[in-house]
Amino acid sequence: MPKLNLSISGLSVVMALALGLGELFFFFYGENWEGPLGVFTPDRLGFNLAWLALIYISFQLLSIPFALHASEKKFIGVVDGMVSLVPLAITVIVIFGKPELLNTPQRWEAAILLLFIAAVDVFGGYTFNIALSRRTMDVGT
After folding, report:
1. Which of 30, 34, 48, 73 could bond 26 through an S-S bridge, CB–CB 3.0 to 4.6 Å?
2. Would 18 be classed as within a structural domain?
3. For residue 1, is it within any domain?
4. Between these two residues, 103 and 1, which has the higher pLDDT value?
5. Within a 13 Å sphere around the CA of 31, how many CA atoms are in the beta-carbon half?
6. Is there a domain that residue 88 lies in?
7. What are the tens digits of pLDDT across the range 50-103?
8. CA separation for the pair 12, 79 (Å, rounded)
9. Cβ-proximal residues to 102 (8 Å cutoff; 6+ apart), any chain
10. 87 within 8 A of 121, measured Cβ to Cβ
């Protein structure tokens, strides 16, 4: 049986792709889907997205210092940074290209919250990486 070696950066990539897949499902296929546990019902949508935001952003931003020093392979670091654009792109496409999918105020609110989650992931991640890289290389001192 092959050994599964999943680094912090690899887990970050998986989480970003899972969020993108969840966004695709929510926006394109989840219009009337309430699910077996009522996950996407209008009265619980904001609460569930708040938990999603907390878990996703907490892991993505708090894992950066650990992934920066532990990553010996530069390729996974580049993939980790680039894959964060997937949820942002999906949300931007839905908001500006397919607004008919956002037919209720709750779905508009969810789309804007998902847009901010993805933007904080992308721009916050790059900011943290730049700050940590400058500090470890002693640039500007």
Report:
1. 30
2. yes
3. no
4. 103
5. 8
6. yes
7. 778 888 888 887 777 776 655 556 676 677 778 888 999 999 999 999 999 888
8. 10
9. 27, 94, 95, 108, 111
10. yes
Tokens at residue 16, please? 């970003």
CA distances, 98 to each of 64, 101, 103 (Å): 33, 6, 10
**CA angle, 110 as apex, 46 and 57 as ends, to 5°?**
80
Q: How far apart are CA 13 and CA 130, in angstroms?
A: 19
Tokens representing residue 46 in the block? 């904001």
The model carries a pTM of 0.73
Q: Is residue 21 part of a domain?
A: yes
Contact between 15 and 60 (Cβ < 8 Å):
yes
Listed in sequence order, the DSSP H helices in the chain are: 8-24, 45-62, 64-70, 74-83, 85-92, 105-119, 125-137
* CA pair distance 116, 122, nearest whole angstrom: 10
Tokens of 74: 């530069």
